[in-house]
Each structure stands twice: as C-alpha cells, then as structure tokens.
Design the sequence.
C-alpha cells in the first residue's frame, strides 16, 4: 500500500529568503509536484485570511511571506496563479480589506498573479455526494475551474474543531453569508466538523502547505496567542498533513474530528503509521507544551461518562459561552453582524448576550477585531479541568 507523504522542514523566521528555501525543500520531497505544477496550469492559492484587521504578529492569517513564496514558486514553473479567499467576517467589504491588509494585493502585482474575492466572484451550487450535513453547497467558481488548488493554512488551534488545518481552511471557499447558514445547520462541534468535511470533499486541494513558522496556541483561531514553531509542512494529502500537524501540537489520534471524519470518507490518511514523514523527524518537530483550546477538556469529561443520560446532563451543565470584555469593546458591531443566531445586541454602546440564543459557534470571537470577546467555561467544567 502506497503511503501518503508529509514533508516537514525548519524555518526560523519570515524573511523571504528563509521561507523560499523552506518551501523549496518541502516541495522537493513531495511526489508528483512537477506534473501538477507544469507550464500552462491554472493554480489557485487558498490562504487563511480569517480577519481583515488583525496585525501580522497575532498569527491569525497566513503570513504574506509564505503566500508570496509559493506564488513565485508556481509562477517560475509557468503556471497562471490566482490567490483568493472569503474571510471570516460578514461585514461589507471585509474580504477586500483582508486581501489588502494581508498583503495579497501587493503580492499579486509582484508575482503577476490574479486576486479572487470569493465573496464577490461568481459561484455555483454543487451537489455533495455522500454529504453528512450538507447536500448542496455554494462554492466559488474559481475553486471549480482551477487545475490545481494549493491550500495554505496557518497552524492554529480552534475552539470547536480543535485544529485549523488544511481541511478546515477549505471552509473559506464558501462565499460570505453562506458560512453563517452552515453554522446554524451545524452548531455543535461534531456536526460542524462533518459540514467542514462536506465542503472539503468538493474543494479538495491537490497540495497543502502549512504556515507553522509562527503558530497560534490556546483558544484559537483568533483569540489565542502566537507561538513560534519554526516549521513549514507540505503534503499532497491534506488529511495526512493535518494528522501530522495535530500530532506535533499534542493531539491524540482521532481527537481532531475534521481529520478523523475526512479519513473515514476516504479523503485522505490519518494513521501516522501509514504516513511517510520526510525531512524533519516527527519527534523532533513535536512541541510538548503547546497549549490547546480549553473547550477540548469537556470532551475528556464526556469520555469518562458511561451513559447517554449522564453525558446529556454534563453537556447542559458545562457550557462554553462568550463573554464581552467591555474595557476592550468599542461597540463596532462586528460580532453582531457575524452572529448567526442573533444572540448579540448593542445596548447603550455595550454589546450584550442572550445566552438562551447562543449556539456557541465562536463566530463572534473570530470576527471581533479588538479581541474583546472570549469564550469561558462554566464553573463545573473548570473544576473538572
């Protein structure tokens, strides 16, 4: 049985020279890239541009040095390069701002690439064969038309899916407000993870290249803290890349549901024994003290409870809920626009939450440009954790 290959290399910082060298190394280790990236091919680069406002040092978005280096790598091989995304905010013009502030507009000029705003470009409604949550999905036309898709995720934790990796990054191929609808259809971690895999099955990349030079630990994907990992990873199997990335930051096999569900559907390999890791050895790349989301601790509690009834009680007694930090909140309303459940309101200049309406989807904290919303555990969950 042919193994999936994941390549890992060290990259100490975001200097263009070091990033270009690192990308060259990991791409050299991958099979079939010469055929994939050949003259005349149309290549779509899909970075993670979650926020239109977060500064680079916060490690929220894929770093522009990584985007530029892979764009140059493809251009030198005679490929036509496009760079596109739909960011996490639903405010008007937010993706345009994200493309500008993340340096993509400048990169496109310097590398003769084309910029695609997934929110404003044409899209198609596509049937999802075997979809677990979604039967159809609106997907950006550029994703369907590209000869080669290269997803460029950031190594980050995620409060619901545990990891923002190559599989989760393809959720951004869904334009604008359609992501909001999916959150309402799939508010809980397992259902959202299945929905993410539904999208991934349609927008499946040919190559995944992960920016793990500076990662995000803690309560990601927007509220965590930067952590130097000094790595670049690549694979032609996005699921295998996520399995390796998850192992590096301390997740056990099967703990990241997007990885496990994608593997169950035959969309990639998640068993480390079936993955050929090249370059840096996995045990040398591991980060033993990487902080994972506090939300994962409830899953630990569920695993030790034997009955469905007990788990139901615990689920309702240990909620995660958003808390507005009023000293940091400026009343911009980003969280309100992005809340799919209409659980947030602006009263006398302050944002207030109706807990009964909250579905715990993290959309508000992801969209807040001032890090003024954080998710906290209930008192019981803190005791068990």
Sequence:
């Amino acid at each position: 049985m042919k193994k999936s290959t994941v390549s890992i290399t060290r990259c100490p910082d975001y200097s263009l020279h070091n990033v270009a060298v690192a990308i060259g190394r990991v791409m050299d280790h991958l099979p079939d890239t010469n055929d994939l990236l050949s003259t005349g091919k149309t290549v779509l680069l899909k970075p993670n541009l979650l926020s239109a406002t977060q500064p680079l040092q916060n490690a929220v978005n894929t770093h522009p040095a990584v985007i530029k280096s892979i764009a140059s790598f493809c251009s030198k091989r005679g490929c036509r390069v496009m760079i596109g995304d739909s960011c996490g905010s639903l405010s008007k013009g937010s993706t345009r701002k994200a493309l500008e502030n993340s340096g993509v507009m400048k990169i496109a000029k310097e590398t003769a690439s084309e910029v695609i705003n997934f929110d404003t470009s044409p899209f198609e409604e596509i049937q999802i064969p075997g979809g677990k949550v979604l039967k159809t999905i609106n997907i950006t036309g550029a994703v369907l038309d590209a000869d080669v898709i290269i997803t460029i995720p950031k190594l980050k934790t995620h409060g619901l899916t545990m990891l923002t990796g190559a599989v989760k990054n393809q959720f951004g191929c869904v334009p604008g407000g359609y992501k909001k609808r999916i959150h309402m259809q799939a508010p809980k971690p397992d259902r959202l993870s299945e929905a993410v895999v539904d999208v991934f099955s349609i927008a499946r990349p040919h190559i995944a290249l992960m920016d793990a030079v500076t990662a995000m630990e803690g309560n990601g994907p927007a509220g965590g803290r930067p952590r130097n990992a000094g790595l670049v990873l690549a694979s032609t199997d996005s699921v295998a890349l996520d399995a390796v990335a998850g192992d590096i930051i301390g997740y056990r096999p099967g703990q990241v549901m997007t990885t496990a569900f994608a593997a169950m559907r035959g969309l990639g390999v998640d068993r480390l024994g079936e993955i050929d890791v090249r370059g840096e050895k996995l045990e040398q790349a591991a980060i033993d003290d990487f902080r994972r989301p506090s939300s994962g601790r409830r899953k630990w509690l569920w695993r030790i409870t034997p009955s469905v009834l007990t788990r139901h009680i615990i689920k309702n007694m240990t909620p995660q809920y958003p808390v507005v930090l009023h000293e940091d909140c400026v009343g911009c309303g980003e969280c309100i626009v992005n809340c799919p459940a209409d659980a947030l309101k602006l009263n006398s200049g302050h944002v207030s939450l109706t807990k009964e309406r909250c579905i715990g989807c993290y959309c508000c904290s992801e969209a807040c440009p001032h890090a003024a919303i954080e998710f906290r555990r209930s008192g019981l969950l803190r005791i068990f954790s």
Observations:
- The chain has two domains: 4-285, 296-384.
- The chain has a mean pLDDT of 90.
- The longest strand covers residues 207-217.
